[in-house]
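Question (not urgent): is this output format expected?
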Amino acid sequence: MCMDMNKRKLLARIANNPKSARFQGVVTLLTAFGFHLSRVKGSHHVFVHTQIPELVNLQNVHGRAKA
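Got this back:
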């Protein structure tokens, strides 16, 4: 799995302060790790990965990912 330097910095920034994570930044990281958007229902965006059985449920609250 190869991530460019900007995505590595984004990952470090989110890991250091997850409560201030921007929704689009988290989506960018999820896609970099091989997740894809499965469905959207209301504010819930559900991401899946072919090799990981768990789902990632992400909510967009005013441009931020809900903690």
